[in-house]
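Memo subject: From amino acid sequence to discrete backbone structure tokens
Action wanted: Derive the backbone structure tokens from the amino acid sequence.
How to read it: Take the token row as a discrete description of the fold.
Attached in line: The record itself begins immediately under this heading.
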Amino acid sequence: MECGKKQTEPPSRYSEGTLVAKLEKQGIGRPSTYATVSETLLKRKYVYEEKKFFYPFSLGEKVNFFLQSSFGELFREKFTAELESDLDRIEKKEIDSNSILNRLWLDLQTQIQNSKFILFQKEWATVLQKKKETGWGICPVCRNGILQKKKSSRKKEFYQCNRFPDCEFVSYELPESLE
């Protein structure tokens, strides 16, 4: 019996096409809104696009983490799909829009009252710690290495490619494309 060391693979990245396909499959959005989803993600600097795939900026990771941990039910695929279905039913005059708005308002108030902002801050610190261990993005010079945050002998933080010395990228600032 042979034992080998294997690492788990992260989920594959979304391209604009696979993102739209996922939204369609989940019943989220409308054909008229699909194009603006990726536009908005890019414009707000939640993600950047490289070789037709989306990669998150740290702002995008933080916003996603905050919304999921603080208002999780409102940002679940199932909730969004149900809301889309309700909009269709309103359009067909099968249900009254006020009943949906009242339900949505009550859900939002409950989520706000139950928001765990302090817990979010602690959990985000854990995420940042894990980020230190796994890397801060792809090296902008060699495009093969992963940036790692380190400290100099004077305790100043800097970013360095994990392929050092083969790749000599080093910077005191996180490259703008990864912020």
In short: Residues 20 and 33 are 10 Å apart (CA to CA). The mean pLDDT is 81. Residues 135-179 form one domain. DSSP finds six helices and five strands in the chain.
